[in-house]
Amino acid sequence: MTQFNDFDIAEHLTSPQDIAGYxxxxxxxxxxxxxxxxxxxxxxxxxxxxTQIARDAGLGRESLYKALSSTGNPEFAxxxxxxxxxGLRLRATAI
Length: 95
Known about the structure:
By secondary structure, the chain is mainly α. The chain has helices spanning 16-29, 35-48, 50-57, 61-67, 76-85. The longest helix is centred in the N-terminal third of the chain and has 14 residues, at 16-29. This is Addiction module antidote protein.
């Protein structure tokens, strides 16, 4: 019988390059509802420490969990605060 272990992407987001590449891919693949982007930000925040990211973003830990959940609907300002706390910035490129 084959045994599978749970995969947690947060355990593999160990470098700034990994994190940026992962978030960039989520921007490209998101269906337009933001779910994939919220999920990616959630995973990155967990990789870096949710409590510290919440503190650096000026949010409560529970508020951050809720905002980045699959049912969350964070304001754009919240996303920008979280990205800054994660050491990331939003960039636009022409397609």
